[in-house]
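User: I'm writing a tutorial on reading structure tokens. Could you give me a worked example: one chain, its sequence, then its tokens, then a sentence or two explaining what the tokens reveal?
Assistant: Sure. Here is the example chain.
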Amino acid sequence: MVLSEYVAVFDGASGKLTRNFSLPPVGEASAWIQGAHFVQFGHWPLRWLYFLGGLGGCVMIATGMLFWLRSRESKLANTSLGYRMVEALTIGGVSGIVLATTAFLVANRLLPANAALAGLDRAGLEVRVFWLVWLGTFLHAAFLRERAWGQQCWAIAVAGMAAVILNAATTPHDIIAALSGGHWAVAIMDIVLIAGTGLALWAALRLAHKAEPRSDLKAMPAE
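And here are its predicted structure tokens:
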């Protein structure tokens, strides 16, 4: 007898277990991790606490990498290949992954429903866009170094607002319609994108101001 879930196979006469398709311990651990990442449980306050906890963990990792870079900048910035590698990984891991995520959302709105290329369907192409853009941000950071921060923040702002506009243009659920119709997942996603766009613009402007040469310093009077 074969169970409908194809978990185990038993001998029809004796009932002896002949094959067991149950998940091994590694498979069970993988399934648990996937379930935790998808947050598929019906307790909304717990979902938000889980989200905020994950966000706090990301901030902790990002700030730790930034502190590591700043503490060694004066000694290693221009001489150490390891420093440059960590710098590129930090930029790609902080601003780069956000840019790749917004690019994924833009691709989701731009690709036609029957899109296919090189054996990949529409969903596969969206994932490839994410990975290619994320890889591009690491390369961008490796070549431009400090300047990559501001440029990637500008790109995040453009891509984030483009995702909101494209959602309104290609679906009936723009942010106003989503709020009035009770489509909270769509509305909150647009709100997060708009807030992220504002934060990225603020960061880009701050970085641009920081990079400007200081012209307010007065010449020292001659003695």
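What the tokens reveal: The CA atoms of residues 39 and 136 lie 29 Å apart. The first helix runs from residue 25 to 38.
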